[in-house]
Design goal:
By secondary structure, this protein is of the alpha+beta class. The chain has helices at about 20-30, 35-40, 45-65, 125-135, 140-145, 150-170, and strands at about 5-15, 75, 85, 95-100, 105-110, 115-120, 180-185, 190-195, 210-215, 220-225, 230-240, 245. The protein has a five-stranded mixed sheet with strand order 4-5-1-11-12, with helices on one face. Strands 6-10-9 form a three-stranded antiparallel sheet, with helices on one face. The protein has a two-stranded antiparallel sheet with strand order 2-3. It starts with 6 loop residues before the first strand and ends in a 5-residue tail after the last strand. Coenzyme A binds near residues 54, 118, 169 and 179.
C-alpha cells in the first residue's frame, strides 16, 4: 500500500464477523506480553475480542505500508494517552488514530499531518445521553441546536459529538481541551464553519473534517490538521491478515 500526502486511508473491522479460531490465534501471536496481559484484564469476552482485533488491525495496517513485521511494532502513548509508534523510530511520517464501539473498529491514517477519528453507535446512544453531552458544546452550538426542528436534533447532536471527538483526538489531548472552546457551524446539513477560541492556540483554517454514516448504524467523523484542498479518502473493510476490501463512501 502507498499512502501519499494527498490521501487519508480508513480501515474498518467488524469484530463479530471475525471468528475463525486459527485466525484469532494468529492475531494473538502478534501481540506483546503487555498487550496480552491488558487483553486478559477485560471481564467480558466481547471486550477481549474487540481489543484483539483492534491490535491486529493497527499492526497489520501499518505493515501494509512499511516492511516491518506486524508483530514487531511497539507503541507508547503521549501525555494524554494517544497511542504512537515507539519502534521502529523515525521510520516514516504516517500518523494514525483509532476508535471503536460495539461492532465496529476503525483506524485512520494520514501522512505528515495529525488525524483524529471517531465512531459512535447510533443504536446504543439514547436521546437523553446526547442531551447530557450537549451541555459541553459551545454556546453557539447549543443555540443552533435549539433552533432545529426536534426530528433533526438527534442527527445534529451526533454531528457535534463525533466532530468534537475527532478534533480532540487529532490534537492528541483528549478532554484536556475544553469542548466548548471550539465550535462547528452548519448551514442546513453542511458543515460551514469551524472556529477555535484563542486559548487553544490553534488556527481553525488549518483543519478539515468529514462525516460519514456506516452500515446504517454508526456515524464516523474524521479530522485532519491540513489545509491541503486535494485530500481524498479511501476506505477499506479489513479482516486483518486476510483482506482489505475497498468500500465506497457517502459523506454527509
Ligand atoms: C480518550 C478519548 C479519546 C476516548 O474517546 P472515546 O470516544 O471514549 O473512545 P474511542 O473508541 O473513540 O477512542 C479510543 C481510542 O482513542 C485513542 N486515544 C486514547 N487517548 C487518546 C488521545 N488523547 N488522543 C487521541 N487518541 C486517543 C486510543 O487508541 C483508544 O483506543 P485504545 O485504547 O484501544 O488504543 C477521549 O476523547 C475521551 O475520553 N472522550 C470521552 C467521551 C466524551 O465524553 N465525549 C464527549 C464529546 S461531545
Amino acid at each position: 500500500m502507498e499512502l501519499s500526502s494527498n490521501e487519508i486511508h480508513l480501515y474498518f473491522s467488524h469484530p463479530e464477523q471475525i471468528t475463525d479460531p486459527e485466525l484469532l490465534r494468529r492475531y494473538k501471536s502478534l501481540l506483546t506480553e503487555d498487550e496480552l496481559t491488558q487483553m486478559s484484564r477485560y471481564y467480558f469476552a466481547g471486550h477481549r475480542h474487540q481489543y484483539l482485533i483492534t491490535r491486529a488491525l493497527i499492526r497489520t495496517s501499518l505493515s501494509a505500508y512499511y516492511p516491518v513485521d506486524p508483530a514487531e511494532w511497539r507503541f507508547g502513548k503521549n501525555d494524554y494517552g494517544k497511542p504512537q509508534i515507539s519502534y521502529p523510530e523515525d521510520v516514516f511520517p504516517a500518523r494514525f488514530n483509532l476508535s471503536h464501539t460495539d461492532g465496529l473498529i476503525m483506524c485512520g491514517f494520514a501522512r505528515d499531518y495529525d488525524i483524529g477519528v471517531d465512531v459512535e453507535d447510533g443504536k446504543r446512544t439514547t436521546r437523553a445521553a446526547l442531551e447530557g453531552l450537549s451541555s459541553y458544546f459551545s454556546a453557539q452550538e447549543i443555540e443552533d441546536l435549539g433552533k432545529l426542528p426536534p426530528e433533526q436534533q438527534k442527527q445534529r447532536f451526533f454531528d457535534y459529538w463525533t466532530l468534537k471527538e475527532s478534533y480532540i483526538k487529532a490534537r492528541g489531548m483528549g478532554l484536556a481541551i475544553p469542548l466548548g472552546k471550539f465550535s462547528f457551524k452548519f448551514n442546513e446539513n453542511n458543515l460551514s464553519d469551524f472556529s477555535t477560541h484563542p486559548d487553544l492556540n490553534d488556527d481553525a483554517k488549518n483543519w478539515q473534517f468529514w462525516r460519514l454514516p456506516m452500515a446504517d448504524r454508526y456515524q464516523v467523523a474524521v479530522a485532519v490538521n491540513s489545509a491541503n484542498s486535494n485530500l481524498t479518502i479511501n476506505a477499506y473493510n479489513s479482516v486483518p491478515l486476510l483482506r482489505n476490501d475497498s468500500i465506497p463512501l457517502t459523506f454527509l
